[in-house]
Amino acid sequence: xxxxxxxxxxxxxxxxxxxxxxxxxxxxxxxxxxxxxxxxxxxxxxxxxxxxxxxxxxxxxxxxxxxxxxxxxxxxxxxxxxxx
Length: 84
Prior knowledge:
Blueprint: E1 2-5, H1 7-15, H2 18-32, E2 43-44, E3 53-56, E4 62-67, E5 71-78
Parallel strand pairs: 1-5
Antiparallel strand pairs: 2-3, 3-4, 4-5
């Protein structure tokens, strides 16, 4: 599985405090391992974000991704306000 990071994701990640960035990097590493998908609580999104998935970086922050058959695009990272 190829993982690609969008410019928006990288900008959003850079704006976060260093400790939250560390949490995001840890969650991405867990996600990369197939067994880690359950651990980060990957789930489908609905409504206007239909077609995208989300998983937890920590209790407050979420990472939004778009999955293809062979690629995963990291779209954005932030708090639950991303869903609005």
